[in-house]
Each structure stands twice: as structure tokens, then as C-alpha cells.
């Protein structure tokens, strides 16, 4: 289908979703949130899609935040609905069951940083900037920023970034665990594509099990998380992915031993 604010492209089993509002630095208005929700639902239901890459149009911004011009006229009830719309999208991305990579080439601020943190892996250009500057507007993060930043970077970093509204560079974001990889600007696409291709070749049911075990099991006690892992591990033994993967691994190992 045609989107007003998104571009969708497929490269083999990798689907790229691009927020396409470069004149607004790809800011998230309600319409864009709704389109992203539809696009991710479609990607999740399409068996041909193994990996999703999420990025923003242009070189300046991944997503520079929520659309302040639209938010400015909200009542508290409307703001609550806007927050819940954003949080539902972030939870959808996080629980998609397929790896989602954020390709971050520029500013990832406010809602943009929250969007990136909802992705499973985040590859940033060394020129990227991150921040939760909502306090400068008299607001707090509304799309999950206080909670995901807390879980990724810890309480101290979450409080510092949210209370000061300061921006950090990609290297600092990497040190805090907010970013999983940093690449030179000219090597960003190569880094993202290489990672996406590797994940696209992985067993999809095993990938889904790992995502579930880490994301859902990680929100429970250690004993509950271990039981979650055991159940997912056992379920994997019923899949063709496991049988094919094990056979291929044993054949490769046998060839390696024979070659010595």
C-alpha cells in the first residue's frame, strides 16, 4: 500500500522502513505513528520478511522527536492518547518476533531515541546524536523513554539524560549500551546491511525464541526467566530449523576434522 510518511523497500528477506518526513527531520506525528504501526504489523505477518531495518530519510535525522507543532495544541486527554499510541508502536516493534535494526545516521532525539530503543539492535553513524530533551519543553518522555533507557543504560544514566535533556554522541551512547554498534558515516550502510544479511540467514524460529527469552524472560525473576528459556529451548526441538541446522553443523564439523 502507499504511505504518506513512509517508504518501504525489500532487499531479499530484509525489509527497510524509512520515516520520510525530512523537512520535519522525520518527526513523529500521529499519522506517522499509525503508519508505522501498520507497516510493522505487515512486516510481522509476512513470512518472506526475516529482518526489518528502520531508518529516517535524509542525512540529518533518524527521527528528531515527536511533532511538537502537533502536540502543542493537545489537551491532557489528547496527550495521554498520543502517548499510548506511541507506546503501543514501541511495544509492537519490541515484540515483533523478528530482529529489528535501527539505522541511525543523525539525530535520534525524544521520540526518535525512544523509537530506536524499541528496536533490538541499533547501529549508529559516528555523527549520530542522542537525547531525551523533553524536560526542556516542560515535559517528560512519553513513548517509553524513561523505562527503556533505564533498562538499557541503568538508573544513573537514565536520570542524567532525562533530567538534563543533554545530548550525547554515538560513542557515549555505545558506552552506555544504548547503541550496539558505531560505524563511520561512510560505512554505515555496509555495517547495517552486513548485520541484516547475517540475521536474515539465521533460523527464524530460533531467532524468535531468543527475542522472547531475552525480552520477556528478562522482565521476570531469574527462576521464571530460566523456565521461560527451558520451554523455548524444548520447543525448538520440534522445528525443521533445528533439524536442518544441526545436520548442517555436524557435516561442517566433520569436514573440518577430515581436512586436518
Terminal Cα separation, in Å?
Answer: 54 Å
Low-pLDDT runs: none
Bulk shape: globular
What letter string, H or E per element, gives the SSE order?
EEHEEHHEEHEEHHEHEHHHH
Helical content, roughly?
Answer: 40-55%
* Global mean pLDDT: 93
- In spatial order, strands of the major sheet run 1-2-3-5-7-10
Radius of gyration, rounded? Answer: 19 Å
Count of individual beta strands: 10
User: Structural class, from helix and strand content?
Assistant: alpha/beta
Summarize the main sheet: 6 strands, mixed
Strand content range:
15-25%
Number of helical segments? Answer: 11
Question: What's the short story on this structure?
Answer:
Helix content is 51%, strand content 17%. With 260 residues, the chain is of the alpha/beta class.
Give an account of the 3D structure:
Helix content is 51%, strand content 17%. By secondary structure, it is α/β, with parallel strands linked by helices. The protein has a six-stranded mixed beta sheet, sandwiched between helices. A four-stranded mixed beta sheet has the order 4-6-8-9. Strand 1 and strand 2 form a beta hairpin. The radius of gyration is 19 Å and the shape is globular.
Question: What descriptors fit this protein?
Answer:
single chain; 260 residues; alpha/beta; 6-stranded mixed sheet; 4-stranded mixed sheet; 51% helix
Please give the structural blueprint.
Blueprint: E1 6-11, E2 14-19, H1 30-45, E3 51-56, E4 61-63, H2 68-71, H3 76-94, E5 100-104, E6 107-109, H4 111-118, E7 121-125, E8 129-131, H5 145-153, H6 155-164, E9 167-169, H7 170-176, E10 181-183, H8 188-200, H9 204-215, H10 222-236, H11 240-258
Parallel strand pairs: 2-3, 3-5, 4-6, 5-7, 6-8, 7-10
Antiparallel strand pairs: 1-2, 8-9
Helix pairs in contact: 1-3, 3-4, 4-5, 5-6, 9-10
Amino acid at each position: 500500500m502507499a504511505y504518506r510518511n513512509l517508504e518501504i523497500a525489500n532487499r531479499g528477506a530484509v525489509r527497510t522502513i524509512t520515516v520520510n518526513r525530512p523537512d520535519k527531520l522525520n518527526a513523529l506525528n500521529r499519522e506517522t505513528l499509525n503508519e508505522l504501526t501498520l507497516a510493522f504489523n505487515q512486516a510481522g505477518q509476512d513470512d518472506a520478511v526475516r529482518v526489518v531495518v528502520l531508518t529516517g530519510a535524509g542525512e540529518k535525522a533518524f527521527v528528531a522527536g515527536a511533532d511538537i507543532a502537533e502536540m502543542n495544541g493537545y489537551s491532557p486527554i489528547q496527550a495521554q492518547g498520543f502517548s499510548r499510541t506511541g507506546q503501543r508502536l514501541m511495544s509492537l516493534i519490541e515484540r515483533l518476533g523478528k530482529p529489528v535494526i535501527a539505522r541511525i545516521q543523525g539525530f535520534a532525539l525524544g521520540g526518535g531515541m525512544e523509537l530506536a530503543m524499541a528496536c533490538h539492535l541499533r547501529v549508529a553513524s559516528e555523527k549520530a546524536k542522542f537525547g531525551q530533551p523533553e524536560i526542556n519543553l516542560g515535559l517528560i518522555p512519553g513513548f517509553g523513554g524513561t523505562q527503556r533507557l533505564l533498562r538499557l543504560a541503568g538508573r544513573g544514566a537514565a536520570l542524567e539524560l532525562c533530567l538534563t535533556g543533554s545530548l550525547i554522541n554515538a560513542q557515549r551512547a555505545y558506552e552506555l549500551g544504548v547503541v550496539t554498534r558505531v560505524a563511520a558515516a561512510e560505512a554505515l550502510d555496509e555495517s547495517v546491511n552486513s548485520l541484516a544479511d547475517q540475521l536474515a540467514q539465521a533460523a527464524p524460529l530460533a531467532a524468535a525464541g531468543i527475542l522472547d527469552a531475552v525480552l520477556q524472560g528478562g522482565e521476570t525473576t531469574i527462576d521464571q526467566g530460566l523456565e521461560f528459556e527451558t520451554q523455548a529451548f524444548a520447543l525448538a526441538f520440534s522445528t525443521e530449523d533445528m533439524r536442518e541446522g544441526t545436520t548442517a553443523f555436524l557435516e561442517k564439523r566433520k569436514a573440518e576434522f577430515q581436512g586436518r
